[in-house]
Amino acid sequence: MILKLISPKMPIKSFWDLKVTAKLLRKNAVCANLWLPVIASVTPGDITVICIDENVEKINYNEKVDLVALSGMTCGIKRSFEIANIYRKKGVPVIIGGIHATMNPEECQNYADSVVVGEAEKIWPKIVKDFQEKKLKPLYTSDTFTQLTEIPVPRYDLLKIDKYMAAPVQTTRGCPFNCDFCSVKIINGPMYRKKTIEQIIRELKFIKKQPGFNSIMICDDNFIGDLVFAKKLLKAMIPLHMNWMAQCSVNLGDHPDILQLMKKSSGIFVFIGFETVNKDNLKAMNKFVNNPDEYQQKISAIHNAGISVLGSLILGSDNDDLTSFREAYEFLNENNIIFCMLNILTPLPGTKLFKRMEKEDRFLTLDWNYFNVGNITIKTRKLSSEELRSGFIWLHKKYYNYDEIYKRFRRLIRRGNWKRPIKNKATFQGFLVLLNLLRSYLFTTNLKQIRFLFKMLKHLPNKNVDGYFIGFILAYGKGFNDYVKQMPKIKNPERFENSEL
Ligand code: SF4
Of the four listed, 7, 49, 114, 434, which is most buried by Cβ atoms within 10 Å? Predict the structure, then answer.
């Protein structure tokens, strides 16, 4: 029997697909979807499994296959439905699972022979067996949360690891907090679950063996949800010499011992959801772990350890008004947050926020393609949709221009040590990436871009930064700049530029 697992591409272009950055680094996408190798690893051994990620390769619909399994986040689910329709027309049964299917199983049942609700690892072997015995049920619901210690090493060997900027690893599942816009608690349950340290190290070693491996994306909901565990794991990761990134809550800044271990174990950046600098918004979000009065001190502590903070902010909350865009810019600039994910408040199915918006009749669309945090899907309270859209574009253009990125970079490297403990040997691949970067920066009439390149290169050699960090800023900086360049012009940008704080 041949089983094909397919992860769909996003139907609408998004700021964070980082296509330009990936291309500059001679890759096709940021990170693989972890469910592909995980589900492959719990599939009975006598079955041939093919993993396809549409973000890095085309689907061959003519390839012989007996069963197709699809997953998708809400913003990609319509593409999953399209793929399901094609296979079902060919007579190939389709199973759909994942976050959206868990929240909206009835909708997914219109497009699939079977739908999986909840975490699939435990029930997957039974589902496959039912299929083989021609007893596939229309709905499977996982009634327990997976013991992470029981999951085998994901089948990273079935992914085209060399096509990604990073390989995904999960060390824990869940988060101790319960923000109203987030589906983590609903999907992952009330417990913070962990793998064993030995198990994670085994996975990391297996990834390291894959040809073309680059770095690790720890895709835990909150890598520091259990501080003692995080410390033990970081210590064990030091000898592996693998560059990594992870999502953390902002209280990371309170733990210098963890920060030190992060640096020693080759941590490059941490992704932190600040969400907003407005306390009333935070209260409405139920995000009590964040206190804007403490942001500065915590960010400084993380930067001083030589770990870059990749921020995330949400715009369009009920207390946001015309001043919020300028306020967000000032926060990012003052704290030298070199790159930040700027999102529009998007209620995801199943969340408390979604239910509230439904009750208040505030949805403008329920077309899931637009639920990619870059589009307006609800009526905002103190901003019209035009103001939110224009302010969002204004903030991108203000924050992501080369002069601004360079200013933040210069201030950042004055503190902390941005050199990695890893000394990578020069490789032909590295040489090609360098050539690619130089070519893309130089073959242009954009003088600002060329100036940015030379100003960045001037920092080599520098006792505080290495070529990797400079390359990281160049690749991401150009990616964001190119994306922002395509954003439309807005009317009256001065209403944001000159807004009184
Ligand atoms: S802290 Fe992050 S992962 Fe945890 S509930 Fe809030 S948004 Fe979700």
Answer: 7
User: Residue 136 pLDDT more than 80?
Assistant: yes
Residue with tokens 């994901």: 154
252: left (phi over 0), alpha (psi -120 to 50) or beta: alpha
Kindly report, residue by residue over 263-283, the tens digit of the pLDDT: 999 999 999 999 999 999 999
Angle at 454 between CA 453 and CA 457, to 5 degrees: 90
Q: Of the CATH numbers 2.60.410.10, 1.10.10.10, 3.30.70.20, 3.20.20.70, which one belongs to the domain with range 148-412?
A: 3.20.20.70
The answer as to CATH 3.40.50 being correct for domain 2-141 is yes
CB 350 within 8 A of CB 426: no
Q: Does ligand 1 come within 6 angstroms of the Cβ of 351?
A: no
Beta-carbon count within 10 A of 111 CB? 20
d(CA 100, CA 319): 28
Atom nearest to 175 CA in ligand 1: 4
Which stretches within 226-368 are classed as H helix?
Answer: 227-237, 256-264, 279-285, 292-304, 324-334, 352-359
Give the Cβ contact number of residue 147 at 10 Å. Answer: 11
State pLDDT tens for residues 96-123. 999 999 999 999 999 999 999 999 999 9
As a whole number, the mean pLDDT across the chain is: 94
The pLDDT-based confidence of 424 (bands split at 50, 70, 90) is low
Neighbours of 68 (CB within 10 A): 27
> In the chain, helix, strand, coil percent, each to 5?
45, 15, 40
Residue located nearest, by CA, to atom 3 of ligand 1: 221
Domain with CATH 3.40.50 in the chain: 2-141
Neighbours of 186 (CB within 10 A): 16
pTM of the model: 0.93
- Every domain range in the chain assigned CATH 3.20.20.70: 148-412
For 223-246, what is each residue's pLDDT tens digit?
999 999 999 999 999 999 999 999
> Cβ(221) to ligand 1 under 6 A?
yes
Mutate to test the pocket of ligand 1, among 172, 177, 276, 291 (most ligand atoms within 8 A of CB): 177
Mean pLDDT for 115-143 is 96
Cα–Cα dist 163/44, whole Å? 27
